[in-house]
Design brief:
Blueprint lengths: L8 H10 E11 L6 E12 L6 E4 L3 E7 L2 E2 L7 E4 L5 E11 L6 E6 L6 E6 L20 E7 L5 E4 L3 E4 L2 E4 L12 E4 L2 E7 L2 E7 L4 H26 L8 E7 L6 E2 L4 E5 L10 H17 L6 E3 L5 H19 L5 H17 L14 H6 L4 H17 L1 H14 L3 E3 L1 H12 L4 H8 L5 E8 L2 E7 L6 E11 L6 E12 L3 E4 L7 E6 L5 E4 L2 H9 L7 H16 L5 H11 L6 H18 L4 H17 L5 H13 L3 H12 L11 H13 L5 H10 L3 H13 L3 H13 L5 H11 L5 H4 L1 H16 L2 H10 L8 H7 L9 H32 L3 H4 L1
Parallel strand pairs: 1-10, 16-17, 17-19, 20-21, 22-28
Antiparallel strand pairs: 1-2, 2-7, 3-6, 4-5, 4-7, 8-9, 9-14, 10-13, 11-14, 12-13, 15-16, 18-19, 22-23, 23-26, 24-25, 24-27
Helix pairs in contact: 2-3, 2-4, 3-4, 4-7, 5-7, 5-12, 5-14, 7-8, 8-9, 12-14, 13-14, 14-15, 14-16, 15-16, 17-18, 18-20, 19-20, 20-22, 21-22, 22-25, 24-25, 25-27
Length: 839
């Protein structure tokens, strides 16, 4: 594999100052063999300094290249040097490009269900150059014309409307867009079409998934139409990329979705093969809305460089939740955001790798590293706080002006801030510096100071917060007791202490009630006691979600023992009607038991038994029943719990109304395999029932999870030595390898991780290397010796990306060790013993 040079910000700035790219005319030949495809690209561009030199990227086998009629070449890694440029230039490049199995570039997949072949392009972040020669940076936009030669029985979908002549597909010239937004997908797709407001809509999936897409097509079209109507109104502009909008569900996709103009690609996990919960449908709708909002914010108006990638994703994250909440049948989207999504941002902002929302991205590889919870969840929270600060009307007036002024160009965040200041009449410079150019998360804590109550802000950087503070009184007794909102104070926090207008202290003081800011919440002692006692008494689901998030964060910080958190969940989870919140709480409780409790086995057992009882008592066929059965399987540890799972799998003992269908069966198989309760023959038998792409991945995970030396050795060898595995196969194997309760079996792989990761990092693509660095870390071994042995991987001699991934995993491990140590100290104090007496 030729060495790919990493484009730096300085190189991109210099090239953008020199060139304007007019157009790409790309021809792809997909009729050859299974390894490579043909690519011819004709690039028209101008140069501001005739006689100057530059380079174009191509990560492929160069056949011929001509610049203004004269030969150029050879390639220097992935760069083709272009010298003696004219004012107007024409570059023609012919290449043989390799298909990918890692989800980067043009990915090729063979469907085990019917042998059909499917291709799709993922050009983000800098992988368009694996498909055709291009100036692969976001601020050199151009129009794209595409022609594709493909087998006769294939359908080809790309960024524009197409015309077919035999086996050749020709696509209309696109509007100006960045190279990272180019896509093409080809294969015998199962396609459904519709139309709305003059826009042709398409849904596409593999033929073997046709029945599942058909079952959900009405809902998907409805959500798409509702999102289009809402977002066209919000952005003040019609959908900007022609009159077609295709959504493709593609195999082995590395992300949830990608916002290619007119041809959005989604992971196949959103084509539901089995019974699913309404929450999972809501999440799919939010992804549809998220990607659609990029058509305006990210595609129509695009960041100049990856420094402002956060703005693309943060705004789309905000619009995904807002659109679904306002325009579709799904409700309580902000409850889901508070309960689960923001936890991703809080974790990222407390890691050693934390960074300002507005990042300092020096090169392409650094941009990939910052594709994290700060750029998504925290950024969306910060924009929501900005919307609260200036008002929603002014916020969207500024957004509409920004989109109109900068259509089909590139910008920085300063351009958006200018429009928001004009629309709101406010100077937002200080706000921007405090929120976007600093890192770390603030803590808001209610504190009693004599006769008054203050809201304390604890942070290295004091940020402005416009929030609500809820005053809740406990009314009634016994089962009828309820926490009733007395008043919600509208508070503007600016410094370390903000007095609150509280005459009589309530039973619960809830900072950030309404969840309008990004901050950790800590309760005063009385409020904490109220929350821990029984959150079922609090009627507002968003207020409950905020309380749960605060308890979980305190548990992660070691301030609240894991036992107390799990007990609170066991008491209060029955009061939650949203399966998303229930699933989040039970997952967090299991994590607390496994990682944060000194001896979490009994807590896991309590969770499993509580889930069993709830599953058998829940309404038959309900979302809550399915959620509880999934949680039971994940928490099961003792033989009695395993026998319950076996009864579910065999059908011998199933709660009334529960459908033990394909995906639930695989969940049970994976959990039983990890407990050592299934043989290879049993996994093979399950695969025979479901010999599909998804079934094969589940089988890989199941075998990797088995607690035997042979299975672990085979899995490790495959992960580290088998270069033929796809990205999805690697993730499936890695996802099953590390299991709680297999410590003795897994401990030898700590040394192997340390010894082998540097070589893997150098040999694999960035996407695969990141997966291996994170998922092969010994995360289930909560042991100080693991910290010691992995410290060497943070040596500056190693690449920055490797060091970052390892540092993040080690920080999570240190957090678990700290939580266990503090919980142990608390337990000793309560027992009235000193550490010496208990040693």
């Amino acid at each position: 594999m030729q060495r790919v040079k990493n484009l730096t910000r300085d190189e991109a700035r210099a090239r953008a100052a020199l060139l304007d790219v007019t157009s790409y005319d790309v021809a792809l030949d997909l009729t050859g063999g299974a390894e490579r495809f043909g690519s011819v690209s004709v690039v028209a561009f101008s140069c501001r300094e005739p006689g100057a030199s530059t380079f174009v990227e191509l990560d492929a086998q160069l056949l011929t290249a001509e610049l203004n009629g004269r030969p150029v070449g050879p390639l220097d890694g992935n760069r083709l040097q272009l010298t003696d440029l004219q004012a107007d230039n024409l570059l023609t490049v012919s290449a043989r490009c390799a298909y990918s199995r890692t989800g980067e570039g043009l990915h090729r997949f063979s469907d085990p269900a019917d042998g059909a072949t499917y291709l799709y392009a993922q050009s983000f972040l800098d992988d368009a150059q694996r498909i055709f020669a291009c100036f692969d940076q976001p601020d050199l936009k151009a129009t794209f014309s595409l022609s594709v030669d493909a087998p006769q029985d294939w359908t080809v979908v790309a960024n524009g409307r197409c015309t077919r002549r035999g086996g050749r597909w020709e696509f209309a010239t696109t509007e100006r867009m960045s190279t990272y937004l180019f896509t093409v997908a080809a294969g015998p797709w199962h396609s459904l079409t519709g139309s709305h407001d003059g826009i042709e809509l398409g849904l596409h999936c593999r033929r073997s998934l046709a029945e599942h897409l058909d079952a959900d097509a009405a809902e998907l079209f409805e959500v798409t139409e509702q999102c289009l109507d809402f977002q066209q109104e919000r952005f003040g502009r019609r959908y900007p990329f022609g009159d077609t909008y295709d959504q493709l569900f593609v195999p082995e996709f590395n992300a949830g979705a990608m916002e290619n103009p007119g041809a959005v690609t989604f992971s196949e996990m959103f084509v539901f093969r089995s019974r699913t919960t309404d929450d999972e449908r809501r999440k799919r709708a939010m992804v549809v809305a998220h990607e659609m909002s990029h058509m305006w914010f990210g595609d129509l108006v695009t960041m100049r460089w990856w420094d402002d990638l956060w703005l693309n994703e943060s705004f789309a994250e905000l619009m995904g939740f807002l659109t679904v909440d306002r325009a579709t049948r799904f409700r309580d989207t902000w409850v889901d955001f508070s309960a689960s999504r923001k936890a991703w941002g809080y974790r990222a902002d407390q890691l050693p790798s934390t960074h300002p929302v507005q990042g300092d991205v020096v090169d392409n590889r650094s941009a990939l590293l910052n594709f994290d919870g700060i750029s998504y969840a925290k950024g969306a929270s910060v924009l929501r706080q900005l919307m609260a600060t200036v008002g929603e009307e002014a916020f969207f007036a500024g957004v509409r002006s920004y989109v109109a002024r900068h259509a089909f160009t590139n910008t920085t965040f300063a351009d958006l801030l200018t429009e928001l200041e004009r629309a709101s009449g406010r100077d937002l410079g200080e706000w921007s510096r405090a929120w976007l150019q600093t890192s770390g998360v603030s803590t808001l804590r209610t504190v009693g100071e004599g006769d008054r109550v203050v809201l304390a802000q604890e942070s290295d950087v004091l940020r402005p917060h416009r929030i609500g503070v809820g005053l809740y009184d406990l009314v009634g007794t016994g089962p009828e007791a309820a926490l009733v909102l007395r008043e919600r104070l509208d508070v503007e926090v600016a410094g370390p202490r903000t007095p609150l207008a509280v005459d009589v202290r309530p039973d619960l003081l809830l900072p950030n009630d309404g969840d309008l800011t990004f901050a950790k919440v800590r309760f005063d002692p009385s409020s904490l006691a109220t929350v821990l006692a029984d959150l079922r008494r609090l009627g507002d689901p968003l207020a409950r979600a905020l309380c749960w998030a605060a308890l979980w964060d305190a548990c992660r910080d070691g301030e609240l023992p894991a036992t107390a958190f799990v007990r609170a969940v066991l008491t209060g989870v029955d009061g939650e009607g949203d399966p998303a919140v229930v699933a989040t709480l039970l997952t967090q409780a299991r994590t607390a038991a496994v990682l944060y409790a000194p001896d979490g086995g009994p807590l896991r057992d309590e969770l499993a038994e509580a889930s069993r009882l709830a599953a058998w008592s829940a309404p038959g066929g309900s979302d809550l029943q399915l959620t509880r059965v999934r949680a039971l399987a994940a928490a099961a540890r003792l033989p009695a719990a395993a026998e319950v799972l076996e009864g579910l799998l065999s059908g011998a003992d199933v709660p009334p109304g529960l459908s033990v269908d394909t995906e639930l069966r695989w969940h049970l198989v994976e959990c039983l395999a990890a407990l050592g309760r299934l043989t290879h023959d049993a996994v093979d038998a399950e695969l025979a029932r479901d010999d599909t792409a998804a079934g094969r991945l589940h089988a890989l995970t199941s075998r990797a999870a088995m607690p035997t030396e042979g299975d672990k050795a085979r899995t490790w060898t495959a992960l580290t030595s088998d270069g033929a595995l796809s990205n999805a196969e690697l993730a499936a194997l890695a996802g099953g390898f590390w299991q709680p309760g297999q410590d003795a079996l897994l401990r030898p792989y700590v040394a192997r991780y340390v010894a082998e990761l540097p070589g893997l990092w150098e040999a694999r693509t960035p996407q695969v290397a990141g997966v291996l660095a994170q998922q092969l870390f010994p995360s289930t071994l909560v042991d100080a010796r693991v910290l010691e042995r992995t410290a060497v991987l943070e040596d500056p001699l190693h690449p920055a990306g490797l060091r970052r991934y390892v540092a993040e995993q080690r920080a999570d491990l240190q957090r678990a060790l700290t939580a266990r140590e503090r919980a142990g100290a608390t337990a000793r104090e309560r027992a009235g013993a000193t550490p010496r007496e208990t040693s």
